[in-house]
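User: quick one, sequence for these tokens?
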């Protein structure tokens, strides 16, 4: 286990007019929507989020007996898919910084070989080199200090271990972007407000996607944190992307 000596709150890079974003504000936002997030994720993606997760699991090529860490696990959707692949001798740990999401994950099932740990992806409470695979789905974009999270991922992986990151990305096809922007900036917040009685989380979502680095820039960021030969797998016109790399 390592100690992080930084005391000052972390802040993301800001765009013009954007308010400062801290780990605490993001955590509180996800805590407020935790009971509805599974339903809303499937609703707004037209069920594609499940397909994208299954694609990540297939891409990971999990072997029986491996130890897997799923960071930013939320309510555990990806973790429950991964545990089916590791076998009786393997294990999956799901970690997240939101206690409310962790509570929901723990209630879903008592599946053998899976456990959940409250932890910030940028300050993981695990020893060096203990996991064969680390995954993250729809979470890295919400980590304020992305580089710290990538370095921590690298640290807890075994030599030769695999890292797979799935996230929402801004589509590059010019014909698609007007429809994408209208849906994400207008339709989603309006529907979310009817369900949640607030549109704040789903105003944040499209803004976070727009602020996320391009696929090429994020690939470079991954490699800057020590990983080798990162590959990019865009899906559904680039609306979601899997990044795959090795230690």
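Assistant:
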């Amino acid at each position: 286990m390592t100690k992080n000596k930084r005391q000052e709150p972390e802040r993301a890079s800001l765009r013009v007019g954007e308010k400062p974003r801290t780990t605490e504000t993001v955590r509180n936002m996800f805590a407020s929507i935790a009971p509805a997030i599974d339903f809303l994720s499937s609703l707004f993606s037209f069920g594609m989020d499940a397909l994208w997760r299954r694609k990540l699991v297939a891409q990971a090529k999990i072997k029986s007996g491996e130890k897997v860490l799923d960071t930013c696990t939320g309510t555990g959707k990806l973790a429950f898919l991964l545990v089916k692949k590791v076998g009786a001798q393997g294990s999956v740990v799901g970690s997240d910084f939101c206690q409310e999401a962790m509570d929901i994950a723990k209630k879903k099932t008592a599946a053998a070989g899976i456990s959940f740990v409250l932890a910030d992806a940028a300050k993981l409470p695990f020893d060096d080199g203990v996991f064969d695979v680390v995954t993250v789905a729809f979470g890295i974009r919400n980590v304020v200090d992305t580089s710290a999270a990538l370095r921590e991922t690298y640290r807890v992986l075994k030599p030769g271990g695999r890292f797979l990151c799935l996230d929402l990305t801004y589509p590059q096809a010019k014909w698609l972007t007007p429809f994408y922007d209208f849906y994400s900036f207008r339709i989603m917040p309006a529907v979310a407000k009817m369900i949640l009685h607030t549109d704040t989380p789903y105003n944040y979502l499209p803004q976070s996607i727009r602020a996320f680095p391009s696929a090429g820039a994020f690939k470079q960021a991954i490699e800057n944190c020590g990983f080798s030969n990162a590959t990019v797998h865009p899906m559904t016109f680039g609306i979601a992307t899997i990044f795959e790399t090795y230690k």
